[in-house]
Write a structure and sequence with these properties.
It is a single chain. This protein is an alpha+beta fold. Helix content is 21%, strand content 37%. The protein has helices spanning 3-6, 59-80, 138-149, and strands at 9-10, 16-19, 23-27, 32-36, 41-46, 49-54, 83-90, 95-99, 102-106, 113-116, 121-126, 130-135, 161-164. The strands form 4 sheets. Strands 11-12-7-13 form a 4-stranded antiparallel sheet, covered by helices on one side. The model has no long low-confidence stretch (mean pLDDT 91).
Length: 179
């Protein structure tokens, strides 16, 4: 049985959780999240806690048990505090700006790259080179950050491109001139 799956999830003040047949809904101060619960697990709501239990001990149930518990814990965290990823743009002339729901990136291409920001995500640009991507859905925040980073991944020679804040770019030595 999963060690993570056995841990109960504490429900903070101001979070309301409702469960229908196969869906669980988490409401908080930042918004509402829904998730379809697999039939292999059972969710029990107790006094201020949520416990995820497996219905049997077969392979499929064991593989889903810890995952469902973590997804529900992330939903509770998302509706209370939210999630944020920070990206940094490195390179001369590289910059970003937000106009409405469009993120416009100048990344050294012959044209600007325009990215439509999905609903539920907010992007703030600071000093034209630091982007803060935030929202209540952890998976969506991570996916948007990865899509933006994929427009110009950091290269190993000069380190130019879009990188996660705190990411270490392993540098390579260029060609040496002459012999």
């Amino acid at each position: 049985m999963s060690r993570i799956g056995k841990k109960p999830i504490e429900i903070p003040e101001g979070v309301k959780i409702t469960q229908d047949n196969s869906t669980i809904e988490v409401k908080g101060s930042k918004g509402t999240l829904l998730m379809k619960v697999p039939s292999e697990v059972e969710i029990i709501l107790d006094n201020g806690t949520i416990v995820v239990k497996g219905r049997s001990n077969d392979r499929k149930e064991r593989s889903v048990h810890g995952l469902v518990r973590t997804l529900i814990a992330n939903m509770v965290t998302g509706v209370t505090t939210g999630f944020e990823k920070t990206l940094e743009i490195v390179g001369v002339g590289y910059r970003a700006e937000v106009k409405g729901d469009i993120l416009r990136l100048l990344l050294g291409y012959s044209h600007p790259v325009e990215y439509k920001i999905p609903d539920g995500i907010s992007v703030k640009v600071d000093k034209q080179v630091i982007m803060a991507i935030s929202g209540i859905d952890k998976e969506l925040v991570g996916r948007v950050a990865a899509e933006i980073r994929s427009f110009r991944k950091p290269e190993p020679y000069k380190g130019k491109g879009i990188k996660y804040s705190g990411e270490y770019i392993r540098r390579k030595v260029g060609k040496s001139a002459g012999a």
